[in-house]
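Session log. Operator J.P. requested a structure for one protein chain; no other inputs attached. Running the standard single-chain path with token output.
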Amino acid sequence: MSAVYCALVHHPVRDREGQTATAAVTNIDVHDIARSAHTFGLSGMYVVTPIDAQRALVERILEHWREGAGKRRMPHRSEALAVCQHASNIAGVIASIEAAHGRAPRLVATAARSDTPREVLSFEQLRPQLAAAEGGPWLILFGTGHGLADEVLRAADVLLEPIRGRADYNHLSVRAAAAIVFDRLFGAR
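Structure written below.
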């Protein structure tokens, strides 16, 4: 499998009116998505926020699980949180991955809504591309708030199809959506 990373994006995202906004970092999203990313073998996870105080919060969360009481109580979680770091913007994440691999990652954007500005690729279509060693690195973007801003969706190389359940309701938490996406793309079949 080629190198695959994910980013939990807090800016630029949409607010409930569809305007570009910045969402707040939450401990549970950082913790749970890092655990899922590690479970499915991703190369790393980034938490993206332009707000200094929010990046400091991410650092405190990571320290708790890597070095503090969280590590002492549950040392196996330290391993999962080791894959996580923070960045002030998506461009910084791309630069970090490019520095590690010698080329920029291909961007995969996720969206729950159907009114996206472009065509989507199915999980079945994307899975073999991610598995090909020569195709990477890859960066899967997850939006907080009410999803990634349209500018991010347009800039991505791939827009992944939305997760659909049986009900006419589609408002999963970002941590649940990330776990489902990872299972559909990297889970044992």
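Operator note: The first strand starts at residue 4 and ends at 9.
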